[in-house]
UniProtKB/TrEMBL annotation:
Gene3D superfamilies reported in the protein's UniProt record: 3.30.1490.190, Winged helix-like DNA-binding domain superfamily/Winged helix DNA-binding domain
Family the UniProt entry places it in: Belongs to the Fur family.
Source organism of this protein record: Algoriphagus oliviformis
SUPFAM superfamilies: Winged helix' DNA-binding domain (SSF46785)
Record-linked InterPro entries: FUR, Fur_C, WH-like_DNA-bd_sf, WH_DNA-bd_sf
Pfam (any one): FUR
Subcellular location: Cytoplasm
Keywords: Cytoplasm, DNA-binding, Metal-binding, Repressor, Transcription, Transcription regulation, Zinc
Descriptive protein name: Ferric uptake regulation protein
Major site of localization recorded for this protein: cytoplasm
Subunit: Homodimer.
Domain of life: Bacteria
């Protein structure tokens, strides 16, 4: 869960970004920052989930505004967008972002984040092999849930 200082920092960065872009600084756009940065750091959310969360809190905001604001947040470096297999785009906060990779369960759809120094070694080796300065990478592992009584899997079966 983000603290208020982090949210205020994100809002200041976003405000400066909007001014440079010549875009409007609307309360709705800043409310998207509030809600995104109130999520746990390792949580990923889609537009529909964010829309429902905000509506349940009494915000009057459209899906289009959320889509557009998230695009601006990605462009400004305040959000990271992920596209996992057959899922819709998911977003996570980026201000405290440390590079990590993902494991996605094929059954329960739970997303787990992980880091392994061996991956950086592979990245460096491939950079040498291809004579390329590797600047980024994306690794997503997909697997089948084998967790006994998986809460996410049980929740999926209710629908």
């Amino acid at each position: 869960m983000a603290d208020t200082a982090l949210i205020e920092k994100a809002k200041k960065i976003f405000e400066n970004f909007l001014v440079k872009q010549g875009s409007r600084k609307t309360p709705e756009r800043f409310s998207v920052i509030d809600e995104l940065y109130l999520l746990p750091e390792d949580e990923h959310i889609d537009v529909e989930g964010l829309f429902l969360k905000m509506r349940n809190k009494g915000y009057t905001i459209s899906r289009a505004t959320i889509y557009n604001t998230l695009d601006l947040l990605v462009e400004s470096g305040l959000a990271v967008k992920h596209q996992f297999k057959d899922k819709v785009a998911l977003y996570e906060q980026a201000l405290t972002y440390k590079h990590h990779d993902h494991h996605v369960c094929n059954q329960c759809r739970k997303i787990r984040e992980f880091s392994d120094p061996k991956i950086n070694e592979i990245k460096e080796a491939m950079g040498k092999t291809f004579q390329s300065a590797i600047t980024s990478h994306s690794l997503v592992l997909y697997g089948d849930c084998q967790i006994e009584n998986c809460e996410s899997l049980i929740g999926q079966q209710l629908f």
